[in-house]
Amino acid sequence: MQIKFRLFNKIYILLILITLFSCKSAEEYNLKLEQPIPVEKLQKDIDYVQHKLEKLHPSLYKYISKEALNAKFDSIRNVINKPITSKEFYFLISPVVASVRQGHMQLSPPFKLVSKKEQKRLKAAGIGPLSQFDFEWMNDKLYVLRNRSKQTSIKSGAEVISVNKMQPQEIHNKYRKTYTSDGLNTTYLPRAFSKRFSTYLTNEIGINDSITYVFKQNDSLKTIVVSRLKPEKKVKTAVDIVPKSDIKKIVITKKEKRIYGFDETTKSFSKSLSFVAIDSSVAILKIKDFSKGKYKKAYTTIFEKLKNNNAKTLVIDLRNNPGGRVVEVVKLFSYLTNSDYTMLQTAQVVSKTSLWKLGLFNKLPVIGYPFAAVFYPFYMGFSTLRTKKQDDGTFTYRLEGARKLKNNPNHFTGKIYVITNGSSFSAACLLSASLKANPNVTFVGEETGGGFNSTVAGLLPILSLPNSKLPLRIGLMDIKTTNQTPVFGHGIYPDKEIIPTLQDKIENKDPELDWILSDVKLKK
Questions:
Q1: N or C: which end of the chain has fewer CB within 10 A?
Q2: Strand ranges inside 45-156, DSSP E
């Protein structure tokens, strides 16, 4: 029986959320966040985190020694000598978790809950003042990439000097030690902060209906108040009056949305295939993630199109791909190799039962017990059967890609280019590391954010610290590719390094793809 880990994770997180909302009102929960926690209880939370890491993490001492990690835990034990809030505790303990240097593992800050009544009001009030901008953190400065507000005088490329009197550098310095990349990689870090800036700032100033920005533009400062942007009512135009039969529209069917993983917010697909207009033999496969869509049907259709169009060159764009299903990248690799393959090693786990230890029942209200009771025994049996004790006393778990598989008869035989950047992570790196062994593949862009040799993920339960209630996510499997590199602690390096400038991003230029198209033309 196939039980997918991502499905289990979603059920688990859902039940945790049910617990939070069913046990306490938003007001009660938020009030508790402000109350100092006794020293004794905080010490128990430190013990809890250290114990869970030692008992569940399969590669805890890959980038830090046991002695060094223990010393970090002891240091915060000595620092905590008076009651503090969960937020203050977060800034003490999260750097210790981050020092393990495993990007999937994270201790998240405590966020205030929003009541249903307030959620309804915020939705009616429109898009928040932070969400109206896309930000980019480069060279220790925060810039506006996209402006969707009514303040049209603020152009792309404007530097953000402050938001409600808080400087971006202040936020960065405060939160930088709370998260990490995989190993020694640095390309992931600025991209992670760009993505999380709005979240971190909200944690500092709360949810606001208006925010005061100070921008630097053309060497002058400009102070602007940005308020919520109400949804505009659609006004009928002449185009709307034209009979539908006379308008040629690209209709996206529900079936296509299911297969290719359509995102209603961004109006884009998880997987999309296009051909270069000037040379239809060059195809571009953009994969935004390995989480959405019916991947088997999607890749079957995509590679049939490549064959029917007689494509000679395939560009696989993995930029900003955070990863997802391991089984999906194993399937995709079958279309990108000329021979039968074993893509992964057996994953390393801590024990035969370490995949069980999620603390599920003690986190649930009674109402959640029936759901867990039905599902959990099947999951336990499935994980136990796939876990084996090795002669050296270690334990391994057999993933789908850890056995010999046949390549797809419809596999691509032409030249392959792969574009990566610092936001290429997790499963995207497993695919990249495997493709790196193919001499017919050229990597372009930036070192990946995830590691080359392994990623500690697979199953990522979220545990709640007993007293501070901080959510801790831990990876339970160390997943390694069969293709390894002697370079320690880094991601997949490009064969041709190209890092877009701020101006490239503002003007929507794509220097990585431009170089590839020039290289294709040169080789012809």
A1: N
A2: 106-107, 133-138, 141-147
Count helices and strands in the chain by DSSP H and E runs: 16, 21
Both structure tokens of 382: 């499935």
The answer to whether 328 touches 4, Cβ cutoff 8 Å, is no
Mean pLDDT rounded to a whole number for the chain:
88
Question: Under a CB-based contact definition with an 8 Å cutoff, are residues 184 and 489 in contact?
Answer: yes
Residue 359 pLDDT: 44
- Could you give the CA distance from residue 412 to residue 416 in angstroms, rounded to a whole number? 9
Locate 155 and state its tokens.
């152009």
The token pair at 254 is 């529900």
pLDDT bracket for residue 371 (50, 70, 90): low
Dist. CA 419–CA 492, nearest whole Å: 11
Per-residue model confidence (pLDDT) at position 374: 63
- Alpha-carbon torsion (337, 341, 344, 345), positive or negative: negative
Residue 7 has pLDDT above 60, yes or no: no
CA distance 440 to 487: 21
| pLDDT confidence of residue 246 | 37
251 — pLDDT class (breaks 50, 70, 90): low
Among 49, 38, 108, 109, residue whose Cα is nearest residue 80: 38
Enter the pTM of the model. Answer: 0.88
What is the strand order of the sheet 462-464 is part of? 106-107, 471-473, 462-464
Cα 489 from Cα 517, distance rounded (Å): 32
CB atoms within 10 A of CB 325: 18
Residue-wise over 57-96: b if at least 16 C-beta within 10 A, else e? Answer: bbbbebbbeeeebeebbeebeeebeeebebbebbeebbbb
Q: Which of 213-227, 240-254, 383-397, 464-478 has the lowest mean pLDDT?
A: 240-254
User: What number of CA atoms fall less than 13 Å from residue 220's CA on the CB side?
Assistant: 7
